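Build the 3D complex.
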Amino acid sequence: MAGTALRGRLTWQVAKVAAVADETASVRTITLDVPDWPGHRAGQHLDIRLTDEDGYVAERSYSVASAPGEPVAITVERLDDGEVSPYLTDELRAGDDLELRGPIGGYFVWEPGDGGPLLLLAGGSGIVPLRSILRHRERTGSTVPVRLLYSSRTLDDVIYRVEFDMAASGVEVVHTLTRHQPPGWAGYARRVDAALLAEVAWPAAGTPLAYVCGPTSFVEAVSQALVQDGYPPQRVKTERFGATGGT
Amino acid sequence: MEAVDGNAIGGLLLEVFGTEMTDAPSVCVSCGDARQVAELVVYLRGPGTVVRCRSCGSVLMVFVTIHDRTCVDLMGLAVLG
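Done.
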């Protein structure tokens, strides 16, 4: 049933927080010094485990935000009713310890050899693994064309905004702001739907490869629309975060 | 409770099976739907972790962890890995 080539069991280890940096009012990137990190692939995640003073344990998965070869970083959105994220975004400081295991995932990953053109579709904090893919593309010198369609509530909620404003050659970034748009906003101003995808997505005939990540409802709507548009289901990779951040 | 997908249990599966499983193939006993584990429907917040078929909704896998011991039920799967 399980593969025969067993690798070492995944074990929890203690990492040290190297740095924290605010991305938006509710989103923070945490760079980690992980003593025993075997290296990750673009798109993978890790699990964080917090243990309360009374022994209560909470685990959550976070996508790795950095590219392979870069220091391990996660980008966390604070959920006001969350058990884990408010600690990570509000309490954690450089020098603190953090228990984690990883890297994890062999499905929602991208390597330059996987081809394209790439269509990256993010809802809210679903941008995080796609940012790792984008950085990996740039660091490996890949010239595969990329379109990133990124849905956020408002301009202030756009994570990695400065980075995306200086997008690498061959990368087109298209924003849609679903809740509020600044004066003079020229981008899209609605949820991602079939009509919007028809304008932005690569034609299905060109063997595009799509990665869709975000809240479950976003991923379901977008992936179904792509398949209806002619994308082969196996070329539409999906990762659902549940009802977390807004889009 | 909103579902996520099989990506979210990559760590759990790696712990249980000792190998990366999110890209492994699976086949539902009830309807024969074949899908990679990452694409299955996953409910995390119950007393255990429940994995359902994206096609027919049947329960494929259940995981319950107590004191670092994980009980695994794979009765809904015809094929895994």
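DSSP finds five helices and eleven strands in chain A.
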